[in-house]
Amino acid sequence: MPKVSVVIPIFNVERYVERCARSLFEQTLDDIEYLFINDCTPDSSMNILARVIEDYPKRKFQTRILEMPTNGGQAAVRRHGIKLATGDFVIQCDSDDWVDVDLYEKMYTKAIQAKADIVVCDLKDVYQTHSVIHYNPEFCFNAKETIKRLYKNYFHLSTANKLVRRSILVDNKLLPYERINMWEDNGLMYRVFYYANGLAQVRDSYYNYNRCNEGSITTGYGSKAVEQMIECASLLTEFFESKSDAAEFVNCVQFIQYLAKINLITSEFSGIREFNSLFPKVKHPPKDFDKNAFSNKGRMRLFFVEHHLSWLFILLFKLFKTIK
User: Fold this and answer.
1) Which of 31, 101, 156, 188 is surrounded by the fewest CB atoms within 10 Å?
2) Domain holding 117: CATH number?
3) Quick one: how far is CA 7 from the chain centroid?
């Protein structure tokens, strides 16, 4: 049984997949299972990957190339990878990103030493001219307590910087929600943290998040993406409200709902009505919430919404988009 399984979706990444694959094959951890999943990519990503694999003969037997029957998107690929993984721990890696070469050894070693079900590393956003490190807060050892207070001590719920004990996923039948490709990481990790026990973190090695194609302020989520966020928030609401300790997660759930619904305030005035009617008990985020949960653009949107100026944000959004 491998120590770690890495699930890597492949779709339209011919510009980046070589860098990603080399960072994975050069890991200092020896016993790794690599699951590269071809999500019917139309470009030459798979040919490039095949060429890179030949440069690492010792990794070849650890590598599995899997094919999706049709293009299913992130959620379907991650579900497939988790089901087929055989490692003691599972982690995701997007094929346009890359990881520091000692990252998985550090994370696995920490998991064993701390007897942790989840190990988290810091994220590095890499732009064309600079990079920004996002340091996680200091966690308590209890994963459930940590997620309960996420709204006021926020950290990113990406699946890519969290090593998860596979038994937590298997025993609790945890997979990304079907057909939700936006917030698929939130949908999974909230539930993983609920069931996990020990939580630990490593410093000074990073998951490198490719931000070179970052959108401008006038780039909003499409309506389909917002619909998926809202569906994810609804499913997580059902999940937490079904638990015997649901009362302890009220603020957590309200925060999830608010983060989802505020994205309705973008480019259409009809979004204001939808915002007011969706999750109607949640007019504002919980008190003492952490504004780091919002991007710079998100904080701007939050300011306008909280000051009852949603219409002005939408008007400005339309104006800037027209000028652009």
Assistant:
1) 31
2) 3.90.550.10
3) 13
Which residue, chain included where needed, has tokens 């710079």?
A: 296
Q: Is the pTM of this model over 0.85?
A: yes
pLDDT tens for the chain, residues 1 to 324: 899 999 999 999 999 999 999 999 999 999 999 999 999 999 999 999 999 999 999 999 999 999 999 999 999 999 999 999 999 999 999 999 999 999 999 999 999 999 999 999 999 999 999 999 999 988 888 999 999 999 999 999 999 999 999 999 999 999 999 999 999 999 999 999 999 999 999 999 999 999 885 443 334 578 899 999 999 999 999 999 999 999 999 999 999 999 999 999 998 999 999 999 999 999 999 999 998 899 888 999 999 999 999 999 999 988 877 765
Could you give the CA distance from residue 104 to residue 137 in angstroms, rounded to a whole number? Answer: 20
Closest CA to 194 of 257, 251, 236, 138: 236
Length of the chain equals: 324
Which domain does 25 fall in, by range? 4-210
Q: How far apart are CA 177 and CA 84, in angstroms?
A: 17
